[in-house]
Each structure stands twice: as C-alpha cells, then as structure tokens.
Amino acid sequence: GVYIHGMYVEGARWDRGTKTVAESHKGELYDSLPVVWLECLEKVKKQADETLYAAPLYKISTRAGVLSTTGLSTNHIMNLELPSGDHHPNHWIMRGAALLSMLNN
After folding, report:
1. SS3 letters for the chain?
2. d(CA 1, CA 55)
3. Beta-carbon count within 10 A of 35 CB
4. What is the pLDDT of residues 40-97, one digit of tens each?
5. How do strand 52-58 and strand 98-100 relate by DSSP bridges?
6. How far apart are CA 44 and CA 9, in angstroms?
7. What is the pTM of this model?
8. First-to-last CA distance in the chain?
C-alpha cells in the first residue's frame, strides 16, 4: 500500500471527530484531508453501501479535462469511498463535493 497526503476536499469538509464527510464551515472553500492509506485489493462485485460516498479525486480543481479513449476525463484520477456521515451519498453528489490533489492558487 501507499500513504497519500496533500489532498483537499471541495464542497464539503472532513470531520476529524467523526471521521466522516460533513458540511463545510461558512466561508471555507477547501478543507485538507488527513493522510490516507491506499491498499490494492482484488476487484470484486459488491452491493452499494448507502453509508459511503464515492468521492471523485481530481488532479486540479478545474474538473474539465480531455476525454481519453476510455471515455473518462484525463483530470479524474479515481474515486475514494468516504463515510458520508449524517447524509445520504446523493447529498454530496448534489453538492458537487470532490477531492483535489492540489489547489490552483
């Protein structure tokens, strides 16, 4: 596996107390995500988990990118499943919550 640090949450925040996705604080555009441990696992079919939000991880905050031959944006890296807290995952989809590997500032 690998540790990843330096990711940000846009459109939401990471609640360090409950370890879930939560509403952003007023006036806060981005929140840093704590260090994440990624481990490769065998891909298996699983049922949808109503408590996890499949947060898209993008290279930069401009979510547009060139479509590759796979039909996916070249700016999209992967989805990370995060506990969705008090809200259904659709709440975060409607909010446009996403993860960023770097800020454009």
Report:
1. CEEECCCEEECCEEECCCCEEECCCCCCCEEECCCEEECCCCCCCCCCCCCEEEEEEECCCCCCCCECCCCCECCEEEEEEEECCCCCHHHHHHHCCEEECCCCC
2. 20
3. 10
4. 888 777 777 889 999 999 998 876 666 667 666 788 889 999 999 999 999 999 999 9
5. parallel
6. 27
7. 0.85
8. 30
